[in-house]
Design goal:
Elements: H1 19-24, H2 26-34, H3 38-46, H4 48-52, H5 59-67, H6 70-75, H7 80-89, H8 94-102, H9 106-114, H10 129-150
């Protein structure tokens, strides 16, 4: 079943963890939470595909986990804090995961974050909708200024 469209789906590179994604990703998140126990981590590392059969996962979710495609896991309902447990099981830091997910090196990712994160310019909207909203607000402000000068 397709997701219901939301305004925030237009934010580039972002999968908002809403109620719908929470329901969709329940299996992914329960799998990731199971990795908090050492015995489960050992069982998973011994036979990953077999271990995943314990959880209600779609084929797409299983594939994303096995390929360690963290962006896809988030798209399919994974919660970033839960999926980080999979990265930790593999011996990776959160910084490593974030760099991987953004297509950068750990050093470049750290530098970007120390400088305040990604620029919002060009990262507000996939569709360009934010540009039309910004333009409309700008026009509205200029009309207000011209009216106040007349009055």
């Amino acid at each position: 079943m397709a997701r219901e469209a939301h305004d925030y789906d237009d934010i580039p590179g972002t999968f908002v963890f809403d109620a719908e994604r929470s329901r969709q990703g329940y299996g992914i998140n329960m799998f990731c939470m199971s990795l908090m126990k050492e015995d489960n981590r050992k069982a998973f590392k011994a036979d990953e595909a077999e271990y995943l059969k314990k959880f209600k996962l779609t084929p797409e979710q299983t594939e994303a986990i096995l390929k360690r495609d963290y962006n896809r896991m988030l798209e399919l309902g994974g919660n970033i804090y839960f999926t980080a447990k999979l990265g930790a099981t593999d011996g990776h830091s959160f910084r490593h995961l974030a760099a991987t997910m953004t297509g950068s090196t750990q050093e470049d990712y750290a530098e970007m974050m120390l400088k305040g994160g990604r620029s919002v310019e060009g990262n507000r909207s996939k569709s360009g909708k934010s540009k039309s909203i910004k333009a409309a607000k700008s026009k509205s402000k200029s009309r207000s200024k011209s009216r106040s000068k007349r009055g």
